[in-house]
Specification:
The protein is α/β, with parallel strands linked by helices. About 45% of the residues are buried. A hairpin with a 5-residue loop joins strand 13 and strand 14. The chain is built from nine helices and 15 strands. Strands 4-5-7-8-11-12-13-14 form an eight-stranded mixed barrel, surrounded by four helices. Strands 3-2-1-15 form a four-stranded mixed beta sheet. It has a two-stranded antiparallel ribbon with strand order 9-10.
């Protein structure tokens, strides 16, 4: 969706493959060392499975989850036989909220040729719960490819073959008429697939990397960078039940794009989004301190306007923002303003 310049420099919520300032890309292919922390991404969500119910046996309050999240991925199946016991109930409840949603399948091969059987099992289970892949609010289905647990240890799946994954992805794509998302991580592809991630190159990637500060997930060899980032597995999320009436923990994720872009991916292109806290970039200007300032500084440096990332919006940062604005033919007020298009006040 094209963006129009405003009277202030506006930091767009980072796109599927880019981060941008209105009028020009501030971060297009920034090195990982100059990446942004999870807190700088506006569109957030969670992913769940029966594990999020195990401590209490209680349902998730999805309406409460929807207050601070835009999307969720729900575990549906694993291998060629297992169905998550909470999937159908959770998917029905989620579908009654504003959350954008999709099922995921944990790839667990028991033989070198069961990719088709796993795909068929996943498709049947997802359809039985009401998922079609094309309804309003439905995100593309997900293939989860990672280590498996054997005798209490995480190990590479012995029967994993790239050909199986190719069969699974193509079969699921044909069934739902939409390109699946792949969840994995670079370390798994390097350690369990000999670094050959080409089988994933035509699919959006959902990558995991925890506790990394401002270091984003490493690109998957042969496949590229991320669209979704799972940045923690231990964030307390209101609505997720915890032991003794506490707020439970869940995997938390960010989307590398705007809410409008994610809604388009969920078959809601052109439909106005309901107001949601935290879905636009705040105004950042002279005198401010904190992570938002650090993010602006990192992005400026990545686009050739080097400035120390000290989290202080001082005269040096103002000068670099103005230099960027001038280069992008924007009014040079030195302010990074909201994505919404509301002009920020001048200094």
């Amino acid at each position: 969706m094209p963006m129009r310049p405003s009277h202030a420099l506006r930091l767009a919520a980072l796109g599927v493959a880019t981060a941008s300032l209105t009028g020009g890309a501030l971060l297009s292919t920034a090195p990982e060392s100059a990446a942004a922390p999870p807190s700088s991404y506006a569109v957030k969500g969670i992913d769940t499975s029966h594990h999020n119910h195990d401590a209490t046996g209680q349902p998730i309050d999805w309406k409460r989850v929807a207050q601070k999240n835009a999307f969720t991925f729900l575990k549906a199946t694993q291998g060629a036989r297992y169905q998550d016991p909470w999937f159908a109930r959770d998917f029905k409840a989620v579908s009654a909220t504003s959350l954008l949603r999709a099922p995921y399948h944990f790839f667990d091969p028991k033989g070198t040729g069961d990719g088709a059987a796993q795909a068929d099992h996943f498709v049947r289970t997802a359809r039985a719960a009401g998922y079609s892949g094309t309804k309003a609010g439905e995100l593309p289905p997900v293939l989860d490819v990672e280590s498996v647990w054997v005798n209490g240890k995480e190990v590479c799946p012995k029967a994993l073959r790239a050909g199986q994954l190719d069969v699974f992805l193509k079969r699921v794509k044909a069934a739902f008429k939409v390109t699946p998302i792949v969840y994995t991580r670079a370390s798994f592809v390097n350690g369990c697939m000999a670094g050959k991630g080409q089988v994933f190159k035509d699919y959006p990637l959902w990558l995991a990397r925890y506790g990394s500060g401002s270091r984003e997930p490493q690109s998957v060899p042969g496949a590229g960078s991320w669209t979704f980032w799972q940045y923690t597995e231990t964030e307390r999320v209101p609505g997720v039940p915890g032991a003794k009436n506490t707020v439970g923990k869940a995997d938390r994720n960010v989307y590398r794009g705007t809410l409008a872009q994610l809604r388009a991916l969920a078959n809601l292109d052109g439909t106005p989004a309901p107001p949601r806290p935290g879905t636009s970039w705040p105004t950042v200007k002279s005198g401010q301190r904190g992570v938002d300032v650090t993010t602006v500084q990192l992005l400026l440096t990545a686009r050739g306007h080097a400035v120390k990332a000290d989290g202080v919006y001082g005269t040096g940062t103002v000068a670099k923002v103005k230099a960027f604005q001038k280069a992008q033919h924007l009014p040079t007020d030195g302010i990074v303003g909201p994505q919404t298009g509301t002009p920020a006040s001048t200094t």
